[in-house]
Amino acid sequence: MPTLPESGWTLAQALSRSGLPGLEARMLAGHALGLSRVQLITQSDRVLDETESVRLGDLFSRRLAGEPIAYLVGEREFYGLHFATTPAVLIPRPETELLVELALARMPAQGSVLDMGTGSGAIAVALAHALPGLRVTALDASEEALAVARDNARRHAPQVEMLHSDWYAALAGRRFDLIVSNPPYIRAGDPHLSQGDLRFEPAGALTDHADGLSALRTIVAGAPSHLERGGWLLMEHGYDQAGEVRSLLTAQGFTEVQSWQDLAGIERVSGGRLAFD
């Protein structure tokens, strides 16, 4: 049974009795006490004072209740960068790095890219950081999410333009060489919404409260008015939605329509190219 740390315990005792996996306990301890991974080892006999034990006990309790590590420590690594992460935004996930890689492979070095529904800004900022000459615009309908995204842009890629917009609403007359998006795509009522980290993440960034495809439909339908000819549209989607997303793209007249698998072998991203004529 887990036991919360008490004043007078050593750091090693607190970690071993936390009831958490070792890595999680060490991450929380490092955050609570301001210690590096090496210091957690070299200071394992450190005796916790009352303030430290209370702080550490609070983090352990919240994690045992299921609260995501990323929210507890306030950041998550994505594409080699550390992103501020709060309950206002989705937690950046490794599978979304595929979207960044695909975009970089199709993006002119001096081109322009639009990230729709940017959340923490992870995709937009990662692209701008990787290609400093890139003109990156990111938008979100949530002001709270944009505040987090702006903080991350200041940290890693201050050239990113951030817009408050409900999808294409604020983009009249503007076109881009590439559009990327990781929109809400989980179907209403999906049991995953009440499991794991998803219980704590913003519902509006996870689900469209419908069939899981409404945001994807909106993005595909509006893309031809905001893409340069020959430009790519790339979208992340659910594990079982690739076929439906390809059909949406084909019906809208996109060419070179295809899907790409993530490291788990799941078709995670689908996209197409706007015809030149």
TrEMBL record:
Q: Which GO terms describe its biological process?
A: methylation
Q: Which UniProt keywords apply?
A: Methyltransferase, S-adenosyl-L-methionine, Transferase
Which sites bind S-adenosyl-L-methionine?
A: G117, T118, G119, S120, G121, D140, W167, N182
Q: Which residues bind substrate?
A: N182, P183, P184, Y185
Q: Which PROSITE patterns match?
A: N6_MTASE
Q: Where is the Methyltransferase small domain?
A: 96-187
Q: Which reaction does it catalyse?
A: L-glutaminyl-[peptide chain release factor] + S-adenosyl-L-methionine = N(5)-methyl-L-glutaminyl-[peptide chain release factor] + S-adenosyl-L-homocysteine + H(+)
- Keyword check for S-adenosyl-L-methionine: yes
Q: Which Gene Ontology MF annotations are present?
A: nucleic acid binding; peptide chain release factor N(5)-glutamine methyltransferase activity
Q: Where is the Release factor glutamine methyltransferase N-terminal domain?
A: 13-74
Q: Does the keyword Acyltransferase apply?
A: no
InterPro entries, A to Z: DNA_methylase_N6_adenine_CS (IPR002052), HemK-like (IPR004556), N5-glutamine_MTase (IPR050320), PrmC_N (IPR040758), RF_methyltr_PrmC (IPR019874), SAM-dependent_MTases_sf (IPR029063), Small_mtfrase_dom (IPR007848)
Give the EC number(s) under which this enzyme is classified.
2.1.1.297
Top EC category: transferase
Q: Which NCBIfam families match?
A: hemK_fam (TIGR00536), RF_mod_PrmC (TIGR03534)
Main function: Methylates the class 1 translation termination release factors RF1/PrfA and RF2/PrfB on the glutamine residue of the universally conserved GGQ motif.
The entry sums up its family as follows: Belongs to the protein N5-glutamine methyltransferase family. PrmC subfamily.
Entry protein name: Release factor glutamine methyltransferase
Primary gene name: prmC
